[in-house]
Amino acid sequence: NEKGESFSYSAEELMARGLNRWRGWHCTAGVENMYITHDGSIYGSVCREGGFIGNVFEVNFYNRMKYVKCTRRYCTCGTDMALRKFKRLKNRYQAYHITPVEVDEEPERDYVAVQNHYQNEIPPKQVLWDLGRRCNYACSYCPPATSNRYEAHKTLGSLTHAMTNIENSFLKGDVGKFIFGGGEPTMNPDFLDFVKDVHGRVPANSPKENHWIHVTTNGSRLPDYYLELIRYAGLTFSVHFEFYQKPKFLEVIGSLAQAKAKDPNLQWRYIGIRIMVPPGRGGEAQSLIDDLKALPHFDDQAVVNVSPLLEFSPNYEFDFESKMPTSYSAQELALFD
Ligand code: SF4
Ligand code: SF4
Question: CATH code at 294?
Answer without folding.
Answer: 3.20.20.70
